[in-house]
Specification:
Helix content is about 35%, strand content about 25%. The strands form two sheets. Strands 3-4-2-1-5 form a five-stranded mixed β-sheet. The protein has a five-stranded mixed β-sheet with strand order 6-7-8-9-10. Mean pLDDT is about 90; it is low at about 1-10. The N and C termini lie far apart (about 55 Å). The protein contains six helices and ten strands; from the N terminus they run αββαββαβααβββαββ.
């Protein structure tokens, strides 16, 4: 168990030691990874490791809470991680900037593949397991074109899962704005 005095040392001096895998980042269970999960719900415990989505791993790396190596033990830099992530997902940079913006605003953001969306977002102060997510989020670049059919499908997913639909739109300067969409009855 981590004591209050030790928490400050963990936050200031130690980073989560992680390994970049093809579509995720994983780390051994440690005081640092457990603290990060308990406090902010970063990652998911799977067996004897914590697994992080690519956006979580890159965010923790950029905010200096994680150091990462590749599968051969070579230490990675931020640009290396982003390049590898973009190779796996051509829309990574848009997803990352929306994730980063929401996390920086104090929201807990988790993947939402089972809902048919990219992210599920919990209101400030709410952690997964305490209550349900408030929104499902679809990150898009401002130059993306969406058909009415795709738009309606996203809205239906949000409605059927009893969540609000949030479209996170990233512009050319990597700034993010949000559009909340909901059904109304005339």
């Amino acid at each position: 168990m981590v004591k209050a005095k030790e928490i400050k040392q963990i936050e200031l001096k130690k980073k989560i030691k992680a390994v970049f895998e093809v579509d995720r980042v994983s780390a051994e269970i440690s005081d640092e990874s457990t603290l990060m999960y308990d406090r902010s719900r970063f990652g998911e415990r799977v067996g004897e490791k914590y697994q992080y989505s690519l956006v979580e791993g890159v965010f923790l790396f950029e905010t200096k809470r994680m150091e990462a190596k590749d599968g051969r033990g070579k230490k990675l830099k931020f640009d290396d991680l982003v390049k590898k992530a973009k190779k796996q997902d051509k829309n990574f940079w848009v997803k990352y900037n929306v994730f980063k913006d929401l996390r920086s605003r104090g929201y807990v953001v988790k993947t939402a593949l089972k809902f048919g969306a990219e992210f599920r977002v919990y209101d400030r102060g709410i952690k997964p397991g305490e209550d349900h997510a408030k929104w499902i989020v679809y990150p898009v670049h401002e130059s993306n074109v969406t058909t009415w059919y795709e738009f309606a499908a996203k809205n239906r997913v949000a409605h059927s899962t009893r969540k609000r639909l949030l479209i996170g739109v990233m512009d050319e300067e990597s700034e993010v704005s949000y559009w909340e969409v909901s059904w109304i009855r005339p």
